[in-house]
Amino acid sequence: GKFANEPKRSPLLVPINKRPYNAMSPPEILMDHYYTPNAIHFVRNHLPVPKLPEDANSHRVKLDLKDPTNEEKVNRSLNVTVEQLRNDFPRVSYDVTLACAGNRRNEMAQWRQARGLEWRQTAVSNARWTGAPLHLVLKKLFGLDLDKARKLGYRHVQFEGMDGDSITGDFYGASVPVEVALDESRGLLLAYEMNGEAIPADHGYPLRVIVPGAIGARSVKWLCRIALSRQESSSFWLRSDYKTFQPSLYTPTVEDFVRAPAQLYWPVVSAICWPPDGHVIRDGYGADEDEVVQIRGYAFSGAGAGVVRVEVTTDDGNTWQLAQWCNLDDAPDDVDDSLHQPFGQRWAWRLWEATVPAPKPGQSVTIACKAVDDNGNQQPERWSSVWNARGLLGNAWHRVT
Ligand code: MTE
Ligand code: MO
């Protein structure tokens, strides 16, 4: 059947849908690693896992220059294998946090119903992705840089996955503007390794695009075609799915989806991964003044903006304390001062911790966090101002009781 190619999955993942498979990372274990182990990286599949080639190196990707005046016509076409990408191009690695745009929809939907899978706060993971820089591939094979591509009338680089329905022709796809795709500093990779290993089946083996700082939806897995075009990808998910609307629009129409811009980058967000919401502390704990609760979480922003600080409150935002950066064993040495990624290329999360006084026995405390990024942008306090019909980009203060 359609689901004949599903891989074995770690029992530590927290599934929220079986077919197609969708699973959150286990929040507590997620906080134990700077680089999320491949086995517990969250999984977001819109379709069955496609039949994958046994030999990664001989996998071919089609590169097409579409006719800028006719989307149906291809002016130039060639193939490149993963082996060529490995041998003929520099091997570049970036630390990138991927997050599904639907992350935290579960909380947003508690404010008002929103359409989609109810992800909690761990449709987020961080990995070191290795591959060939996209701009170099297009330069070498087509002689195209951004200037030339724009002059020829190209506006978007489209990506197609191998997963889809061969009868309807509905394959997963996405695109990014040429200004992003062909700019070296934006860091787009044609990735063949994830944390130093071949990319696992669920994460796009043998080749995927990585679009740093963007919503996960742009990082197309199981890549089989790249096309330069005047138009955005015609994929349902690019055109009619990953888009946000004003809070007053409860049920966007087809026309609303057509008009709205496709979401590319993430805003600033942080969330608490330990303790879980509703966590009960051991009996009698908190009787002493100096008894405390340890809190841990993540923070990241979009488009290469780094997180400069995370703040925590236990009185609904009247007073705040600064969180500390975690220094995990597997993290790069300079990760705690964010120097490990250059300004404008801070694509990886920062893990943080804070200590708050324990509630007295029989009482409870609600902890909230928010992050501030390089641009001074901060998370909004309430869901009411960011609620949108598709439940995307959930970044209100994260609260745990
Ligand atoms: N690529 C293909 N080919 N098919 C998909 O369903 N899902 C996208 C993106 N790339 C998807 C895809 C979405 S919405 C997200 S959030 C990320 O992959 C998830 O990446 P991951 O499963 O490796 O965590
Ligand atoms: Mo996603």
From TrEMBL:
Superkingdom classification of source: Eukaryota
For this protein, the Enzyme Commission number is 1.8.3.1
- Molecular function terms from GO: heme binding; molybdenum ion binding; molybdopterin cofactor binding; sulfite oxidase activity
Pathway named in the protein's UniProt entry: Energy metabolism; sulfur metabolism; Sulfur metabolism
Keyword check for NADP? no
Q: What is its main location?
A: other
Q: What are its cofactors?
A: heme b; Mo-molybdopterin
Its GO CC terms are: ESCRT I complex; mitochondrial intermembrane space
Name listed for the protein in its UniProt record: sulfite oxidase
Section covered of the full-length record? 309 to 709 of 709
